[in-house]
Amino acid sequence: MQQTLKDQQAVVTGGGRGIGAAVVERLAAEGAYVTFTYASSHAAADRLVARVEEAGGRARAVAVDSADRDQPRHLVEDSSSSGGLDIVVANAGGGTIKPRGELDDAANDRMIDVNVRGTVDLIRFAVPHLRPGGRVITIGSASAHYMPDDGTSVYGMTKAVVAGLVQGLAREFGPRQITVNNVQSGPVDTDANPADGPASDGLRSLIPLGRFGTTSEVASLVAYLASDAARLINGASIDVDGGYSS
Ligand code: NDP
User: Fold this and answer.
1) DSSP assignment of 230-242, as one string?
2) 213: which of 1, 188, 236, 245 fits an S-S bond (Cβ 3.0–4.6 Å)?
3) Ligand 1: distance of its center to the CA of 119 in Å?
4) What integer pLDDT is reported at residue 94 of this predicted model?
5) Mean pLDDT of 214-243
6) What is the mean pLDDT of residues 235-240?
7) Nearest-angstrom CA–CA distance, 90 and 12
């Protein structure tokens, strides 16, 4: 099979598990050398590196907290030391979903720190290292524009901020032939949102296809946006949600 990302340098945040892990595996299968971050699950990150290598790919894992002010800067400097970066995927994130009024300041601050500031900082630090033709891809959420459940307002706000950010950055970086796009997942079966979790039946009833997405289905869109075939797509937020937010 022809590899669409042969020898490209990629950084994926939050790649140890879930959607990020599927993105790491897919980009590595397409030939990229992938540096990915995780928060604290060393064993899961090590297992992922082993899986990638067994499949003939290249990946390395680094513990980096996306909410930290300095660690993401060191990450991109280190990852681009052999000549630059080609692909940056800002995936680390998540949310505390609680009924209105029950979210405390700490939970709200954490969502804003990781989902918003962590994404802004990663991109800001990475862009000087991105080569022409580079790709910036954020993992947003359908919750940016569809919030049927009580409790998703702050999480949805952080993902709406990411959609707005991408539109502005696309205009700023386009002249350098760098595209910036946002993948808006609907419910995807991960540890954070298991397809057999307590809220899953309610969510599933809102998805026209009647099922949660899989991490590899999200990774397919990321791989496409990273490929040369997607070179005209810039500033887009694309839903991959089985019609959940339609
Ligand atoms: P998971 O909780 O399954 O996995 C999260 C991964 O990110 C883990 O590897 C975790 O590390 C890492 N991580 C978490 N916080 C940080 C941090 N501060 N710094 C670095 N790494 C971190 O999440 P999902 O795969 O479900 O979600 C991934 C992204 O997709 C998020 O941005 C989320 O908002 C978005 N999304 C998910 C949906 C879903 O239904 N699953 C729907 C819509 C959007 P460790 O393993 O060490 O804990």
Assistant:
1) GTT--S-EEEEST
2) 188
3) 13
4) 94
5) 98
6) 98
7) 6
Distance CA(142)–CA(243), nearest Å, equals: 10
- Alpha-carbon span 225 to 240, nearest angstrom: 13
Q: Is a pLDDT exceeding 70 seen at residue 229?
A: yes
Residue-by-residue DSSP string for 55-72: TT-EEEEEE--TTSSSHH
The encoded tokens of residue 70 equal 């300095």
Atom of ligand 1 nearest to the CA of 140: 44
Which residue is listed with tokens 């887009």? Answer: 236
State which ligand 1 atom lies nearest to the alpha carbon of 93: 32
Half-sphere exposure of 47 (CA within 13 A, CB side): 8
The ligand 1 site (C-beta within 6 Å) comprises 13-14, 16-20, 37-41, 44, 64-67, 91-94, 114, 139, 141, 185, 187-188, 190-193
d(CA 108, CA 134): 32
Q: Give residue 163's identity as a one-letter amino acid code.
A: A
**Domains located in the chain, CATH noted:** 9-240 (3.40.50.720)
Question: Cα separations (Å) of 77 from 80, 91, 102, 178, 220?
Answer: 5, 18, 39, 18, 27
* Ligand 1 atom closest to Cα of residue 44: 46
pTM above 0.85, yes or no: yes
Reply yes or no on whether the pLDDT at 173 is more than 80.
yes
